[in-house]
Amino acid sequence: MTRHPVPFTPQNITEALRILKAGGLVAFPTETVYGLGADAANPQAVSKIFATKGRPANHPLIVHIGHVDQLEQWAESIPDNAYQLIDSFWPGPLAIILKKQPWVSDVVTGGQDTIAIRMPGNPVALDLLTQFNGGIAAPSANRFNHISPTLASHVQSEFGDSVEMIIDGGPCQVGLESTIIDVSSNNIKMLRPGHIQQQQIEHVLHNTVNQGTTDSTRRAPGMLELHYAPETPAALCPIIILDQYIEQYINAGKKMGVLVRHAQLDSHPNLHSIIMPEDPVKFGHDMYACLRQLDELQLDLILIEQLPDEPKWVAVNDRLLKATAGNICH
Ligand code: TXA
Ligand code: MG
């Protein structure tokens, strides 16, 4: 049996609130990706997230709030920088790392003294959060290391009935996880690129921002963890040698998937190509759903066009590098 997503109605929100208050899990849409939510003030409920995802306990979660007023319940020593970012980008796809309040459970923060907080810019998420009137801890609603969900049906296929409710809010507007910025020390760092770009943040802060990594990448120095990844082996391929690789694999009898922006590929029963948008924002919006679509076809390999090394492609390139574990054809 799998649990079917339910529409966004007042009755379903009431039921979602009941589930959350009782310590259960509710998957809900945000503008970035679908989240798997639990009451962030209830450590037992939060630990269900880790069990359901198969996520290691030391990977901290993002706490979602519906009002800026709630920020001080969760974080302390909040610098002016944080408020400048909030004024410019909340509600929206920006998670901010701050010093945590002492009461906040280690289950949420992975034992760190900092906490990630964000106010999502999605009407369903905001309605749920304002009515819940508390923090909802929510990672992306996918099994650990798998592709993030951008449709309610993706969550359903990830978790079946192990989540008590999945609220359907249609396709996520952004489609890539939030930008993460750490302002918990004077050394401001961008830990994960996203729709909100480094230059936009630097413009607001009148300051330079350094590159950092989320802890999961720091724990594996010099290695790219397989993350946001399809189950099918995947590699990036420079466009000038793509045809050559396709020919070689097809001739070897392999079944292939290809994500490419524009190409005249010969059709072949073993070749499944998806033409992607030229624009980086639209590409990011479609990317996870397209990877998921190819991943369901039991292919031998997915080749993805290597994209320009330009600021506007940073978030897409970051996710694709992780999805392919840094595998690049040459
Ligand atoms: O767009 C998003 O942020 C989505 C939606 C559901 O809001 N959530 C999401 O959560 O992507 P998740 O758990 O898949 O990724 C959260 C990231 C992890 O890489 C985690 O290591 C990092 O945030 N993180 C959380 N708390 C942190 C902290 N205190 N210090 C450093 N990194 C932290
Ligand atoms: Mg995730």
How would you describe what is shown here?
Helix content is 33%, strand content 19%. A hairpin with a 6-residue loop joins strand 10 and strand 11 (189-192). It has helices at residues 10-21, 43-53, 71-74, 80-89, 106-109, 123-132, 152-159, 198-205, 215-218, 239-251, 280-295, 314-323; strands at residues 6-7, 26-28, 35-39, 62-64, 75-76, 94-100, 114-118, 136-137, 165-168, 179-182, 189-192, 210-211, 234-237, 256-260, 271-275, 301-305. It folds into two domains: 6-211, Alpha-Beta Complex (DHBP synthase); 234-323, Threonylcarbamoyl-AMP synthase, C-terminal domain (Rossmann fold, 3-Layer(aba) Sandwich), CATH 3.40.50.11030. The protein is of the alpha/beta class. Strands 1, 2, 3, 4, 5, 6, 7, 8, 9, 10, 11 and 12 form a twelve-stranded mixed sheet that branches. A four-stranded parallel sheet has the order 13-16-14-15, with helices on both faces. It is globular, with a radius of gyration of 20 Å. Residues 139-140, 148 line the site of magnesium ion.
Reading off the top of the CATH hierarchy, the class of the largest domain is best stated as Alpha Beta
What is the tally of beta strands? 16
Q: Give the CA-CA distance, first to last residue.
A: 45 Å
In DSSP terms (H or I, runs of 4 or more residues), the helix count works out at 12
* CATH architecture designation of the largest domain: Alpha-Beta Complex
The CATH topology label of the largest domain is DHBP synthase
> If you compute it from the alpha carbons, what radius of gyration comes out, rounded to the nearest whole angstrom?
20 Å
Largest sheet: 12 strands, mixed
H/E element order: EHEEHEHEHEHEHEHEEEHEHEHEEHEH
The CATH superfamily of the largest domain is known as DHBP synthase
Listed once per kind, the bound small molecules are: threonylcarbamoyladenylate, magnesium ion
Principal-axes geometry comes out as globular
Number of domains as seen in the coordinates: 2
Structural class: alpha/beta
Low-confidence stretches: 216-224
Oligomer: single chain
Whole-number mean pLDDT: 94
Helix content: 25-40%
Q: Strand portion, in percent?
A: 15-25%
